[in-house]
Design brief:
Distance between the termini: 38 Å
Strand content: under 5%
Largest sheet: none
Length: 138
C-alpha cells in the first residue's frame, strides 16, 4: 500500500479510536490496534530519520499501548530502538512510551513516583484499591 493511501486511512482510524475511547465504547482497544497496524505500515515505508517516519513509529507504539497489547508494544519498541536510522530523540520518546506502558502507575502519577518511589506508591495504591479507590496500579 502507498503512503498516499495510508495517510487518510490512519487519520480515519485515529478519529474512530479517539471517539470510541472518549465514549468508553466497546471496540476502543481494537480501534487503537488498527491505528497501530496502519502506523506500522507507514513506518515500514519511511525511514526513522524522516519526521513522518518518526511520527509513525511513535504512533504505532503508543496506539498498541492504548490497545493494551503489551507484547506488541515491546516488539515494536525493540524494533524501532534497534533501528540505526533512529535518532536519539526518537529513541528517548519510544523508550518513554515503553516505560509508561510497562509501568502505568509511573505514567499516571509521575510526581508521586518521584517523591516516594514506584514500589512504595504501588503498595499504597493496592491498599487503597482494597478500599474501593480507582487509583491504577501497575
Amino acid at each position: 500500500m502507498t503512503i498516499d493511501r495510508l495517510y487518510p486511512l490512519v487519520t480515519d482510524a485515529i478519529m474512530r479510536a479517539d471517539v470510541l475511547e472518549d465514549l468508553g465504547a466497546p471496540g476502543a482497544a481494537e480501534a487503537q490496534l488498527d491505528v497501530s497496524h496502519l502506523e506500522e505500515q507507514i513506518a515500514d515505508l519511511l525511514p526513522a530519520s524522516d519526521p513522518e517516519g518518526a511520527i509513525a513509529r511513535r504512533g504505532a507504539v503508543r496506539a498498541a499501548g492504548k490497545a493494551n497489547d503489551h507484547a506488541r508494544v515491546r516488539s515494536l519498541a525493540d524494533q524501532y530502538l534497534a533501528d540505526p536510522d533512529a535518532g536519539q530523540e526518537l529513541r528517548d520518546q519510544i523508550a518513554k512510551i515503553l516505560a509508561d506502558t510497562e509501568d502505568p502507575i509511573g505514567a499516571h502519577h509521575p510526581r508521586a513516583v518521584a517523591r516516594i518511589g514506584a514500589d512504595r506508591l504501588r503498595r499504597f495504591a493496592r491498599r487503597l484499591a482494597g478500599q474501593g479507590s480507582p487509583l491504577p496500579i501497575g
